[in-house]
Amino acid sequence: MEDIETKDSRCRKETENAVRLSSWFAGEEGAPAAAAHSILVQSGGDVRAVLNAGLAASGAHVFSDAPSCAVEGADIQHVTVEGEVELSGDELIVSGNLYVQVFDYGSLPYLSVAGPTVVRMTCPEDYEAFLADADRAVREGDWAEGLAHPSVQLADVRTLAAPDQDTGLGRLYITSDGQVRTGIGGAGLGAVGAGATAVQAALDTYAGDPSLDSVVPRQLLSAGAAERPWLGRYVRALDVRRRLARKHGTDIRVSGFGGRFTPELPSRPVEAADQPLLLEISGDTYAVRAGDCRLFRMGRGSARLLEVFSTLRTAGTTDVTAEAAMDEAAARAGRLLGIPADEALRAYAAVAAHLASTAPIPGLSDATGGRA
Fold it and tell me: In b/e form, how buried is each residue of 67-105, taking b as 16+ CB within 10 angstroms?
């Protein structure tokens, strides 16, 4: 009989593998890197060739159907998978007990989610549907509810938010015939056997992230993002709503999507990417910090103060210094909130310090130590 300690260790390992695979699909491993931190090898692919090519970083998670003996002695975390991920309706079985279904984005309104599910772009029509959902969320606060299901992961979120941002080899997909891509729908970067240096050179020829280039034309991706500079906040808001849905449901209002807590502010997202998201859940207001996604419950006044400063410090400040932008934000915040500018600035500094000082906690938590 398996003892409790062994069972707990196995459960922790399985959870870690599931989280890493979810991050792989999302593209969160796509930051510039000389070798991959996570690699998915298509069924029948040669995992040993991947390792010999120097494409895997030390300790990388490698998902493949290869037997354990094929990677014996390698400095990686090998996770056994079976199945496919390229076609809508494909299924990937992880470690023999986790079943992950993969669907095209166009299927989203019709999905009946029974377990872990990945929704990905497979054609230009999928991308156009994604943009239409994003536009509706910004305009009306009406969200694609399928993306709020706790078990649904939107694939390639980093690429969708910033397709022209340079990428690296942090995340790789290896086809059954040995071609290297940075995503399932990515551009081909050459054969595994060419080695990591050749693959990196091929990647360097792309001005941006080619993780969707074989399924959505680059000009369409670039135009969609250029016309919607708030896409990064949108996909982040999607992720936060998904994480909160299990406990709080989907009736979550997000500042900048369908309106503001302070109506005089720009209705659309204009905040910098690293500014907190502001939410209303069942009449209570919260801030979600960038980076670790920590959830802070806030008083309504503090939430409005943070909203005003986050918005006004960003809008129209291209040609002014950060100090001047802050002074202007303080003056306008004072007028909007009916308090002196210096008092608004001090209050904002106190709220910002509260958000910054609490020790990071992975994931979302309601245990925030009171109201700001």
Answer: eeeebeebebbbbebebbbeeeeeebebeeebebbbbbb
Three-state DSSP state, 8: helix
- The answer to whether the beta carbons of residues 17 and 10 sit under 8 Å apart is no
104 phi and psi angles, rounded to 5 deg: -75, 155
Average pLDDT over residues 319-347: 83
Cα–Cα distance, 150 to 99 (Å, whole number): 15
Residue 281 bridge partners (DSSP): 252, 284
Q: Which residues pair with 136 in a beta bridge?
A: none
Q: 3-class SS at 72?
A: coil
Is the overall model pTM greater than 0.85, yes or no?
yes
What would the pLDDT profile of 35-61 be if each residue is shown by its tens digit?
Answer: 899 999 999 999 999 999 999 999 999
Q: How far apart are CA 234 and CA 225, in angstroms?
A: 11
For residue 83, the cross-strand partners are 92
Pairing of strands 152-154, 117-120: parallel
* Distances, alpha carbon 107 to alpha carbons 87, 119, 160, in Å: 12, 8, 18
